[in-house]
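Render this sequence as a predicted structure.
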Amino acid sequence: MNSVSESYALFETPIGICGIAWGERGVVAVQLPEASERETRVRMLRGRANAREEQPPPNVRRAIDAIVALLNGGETDLRDITLDMRGVPDFHRRVYEIARAIPVGETSTYGSIAMKLGDPTAARAVGQALGRNPFPIVIPCHRVLAANGKLGGFSGGSGSATKLRMLAIEGAQVRGELGLR
């Protein structure tokens, strides 16, 4: 989506400077922190070069406040944030709906989501969909693990380190390669 009507803002969180972009139908993207504010801004603008940096309207401000509260260790539910999923493939949308229902402090697996989709062979496709998640944190892809509770990959922020940090903030238990039981 590259619309002149999109706007964005950067905001401080306990894990670094994040970004959020919105349009007339809701939030169109969330950006995890990069190594610097400049890099976060550049990544935020990828695919939305015409977006304007603005003060967020009240609904987006509430979304930002909820994201910050969650990243401060609160059990904040982000499911009431309106997401504009135009252009999101149907399969990805279905994966995101299932992932969005994972409660704070809990985890699921790619395979479990594939089973809920009715295709136990789709775990890899689930991982690919989550790797393209335009709404990290709001669609909590960090709560989805590989088989046997292993951390798995993460394409946002500083990769698996960001995923692990977010899970730790939420109090989630991760086993496998991390040595936790």
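Summary. The CA atoms of residues 14 and 71 lie 6 Å apart. The helical segments are 37-45, 58-71, 90-100, 110-116, 123-131, 160-170.
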